[in-house]
Write a structure and sequence with these properties.
The chain is mainly β and 283 residues long. It is 4% helix and 37% strand.
Length: 283
């Protein structure tokens, strides 16, 4: 579909969070020129507001809470996500690029002027769902995404990671799609207000075990976590960080059994790429 608008729509499961709830609130897939404005999503067992395999997208002025993922952009290109509030989800805002889908290599997402806070809800996604891998306490998660600019957000009190950047390999799922590129590229995170309470990360599930037995951050959990799994053929900067408050950072070296965890942010302090606003044709 070309030219799709949701305005003032509310999708809600009124009971307690449950794997039996529907997976999605708003769910445009394989569309062009998508506007989601002033909508609300509550209780979805995957993503409250989801846009997948689409192009030219604006998600703005929305509220998402009590979902597994509040807002998710997946395998899509040219997305602006701004002026939204995501709270009390498992993960606030997710930008994913996944294998085994008809549309691959999503690019150019701008996530800005959002309030992403207190996303500490236990994960209630059905087993086997990719959303089930999202640990509680995730503010933003960028998975194998390319050309992402994150700026002017308030990202506050997400218990496990305010911002996480990871390759697809962190999921430990088999990868057979030869046309898929599993690594993040050109991630620019700047001018965000980032803060969290001094408390331990999640102790639940596989991620909880990783924090407990491998990472051992205690209550001093960094605000920005990078899995450190890299493409040996790519020498370009993967992440640039600039002018964020509380710019605490860790490269957890997940591809090398966490042997060389580094909290030195200096190698990632640089100026990345900025992108033009999305223009929705016909809207």
């Amino acid at each position: 579909m070309d030219g799709l608008t949701f305005t003032g729509v509310k999708a809600e499961w009124t009971g307690k969070p449950s794997a039996k709830n529907g997976g999605y609130g708003l769910y445009p897939v394989q569309c062009r020129n998508v506007l989601i404005d002033s909508c609300t999503a509550i209780g979805a067992s995957d993503a409250g507001i989801y846009v997948g395999q689409s192009e030219n997208i604006i998600v703005r002025n929305c509220k998402a809470y009590h979902n597994v993922a509040g807002i998710e952009i997946e395998n899509s290109s040219y997305a602006d996500v701004y002026n939204n509030e995501a709270w009390e989800n498992t993960g606030g805002i997710l930008v994913f690029d996944l294998p085994d889908l008809p549309v691959k290599r999503g690019t150019q997402a701008r996530v800005f002027n959002n309030h992403i806070h207190d996303n500490n809800l236990s994960n209630f996604a059905p087993k086997g769902n990719i959303g089930a891998t999202t640990p509680l306490g995730t503010g933003m998660l960028l998975l194998a995404e390319k050309q992402v600019e994150i700026f002017n957000n308030r990202i506050i009190n997400n218990r496990t990671s305010n911002i996480a950047i990871a390759s697809y390999y962190i999921t430990e799922k088999p990868l057979k799609d030869t046309g898929y590129y599993p690594f993040p590229q050109d991630v620019y995170i700047h001018h965000n207000q980032i803060d969290r309470k001094k408390e331990r990360a999640t102790m639940q599930g596989r991620m909880g075990k990783m924090f407990r037995f491998k990472l051992k951050f205690g209550k001093d959990v960094p605000n920005i976590i990078y899995d450190g799994i890299t493409d040996s053929k790519n020498t370009k900067p993967i992440i640039c960080l600039s002018n964020n408050t509380e710019e605490t950072f860790a490269n957890i070296d997940a591809g090398n059994s966490f042997k060389n965890i580094s909290r030195d942010v200096r190698a990632y302090q640089c100026t990345g790429k900025s992108y033009k606003p999305v223009n929705l044709a016909g809207l």
